[in-house]
Amino acid sequence: MQIQVLETAEKELEKIPNPLNKQFGKHIEKLASKETNRHLKHGLSYYTENVTKQARIIYYIEAETIYVIHCFATHKEYERWYKSFK
Fold first, then answer.
1. The 65-72 sheet, strands edge to edge
2. Using one digit for the tens of pLDDT, what is the confidence trace for 33-85?
3. What pLDDT score was predicted for residue 36?
4. pTM for this entry
5. Smallest Cα–Cα separation from 48: which of 33, 70, 30, 80?
6. Which domains does the chain have, with CATH numbers?
7. DSSP for 32-66, written as a single string
8. d(CA 53, CA 69)
């Protein structure tokens, strides 16, 4: 599978401090080899990957490509985005 990081996620990654940024990079690389993906609730077509206890990657899969759309460093940022769908 190919992985494509969208512009929004790239901008968010630029704002994340370096040690955490490296962890995001490792998790993004691992997405292609994962056999199971954790789906978001409420029928959303996105998946989530926990980087740390608070940091998360949001992505979706289309054909043979994984599109990383958001990289949240804190749970507060993630919750704000997630609540916009309720």
1. 2-5, 65-72, 56-62, 47-50, 38-39
2. 877 788 877 777 899 999 999 999 999 999 889 999 999 999 999 999 888 87
3. 75
4. 0.88
5. 70
6. 2-81 (3.30.2310.20)
7. GG-S--EE-STT-S-EEEESSSS-EEEEEEETTEE
8. 19
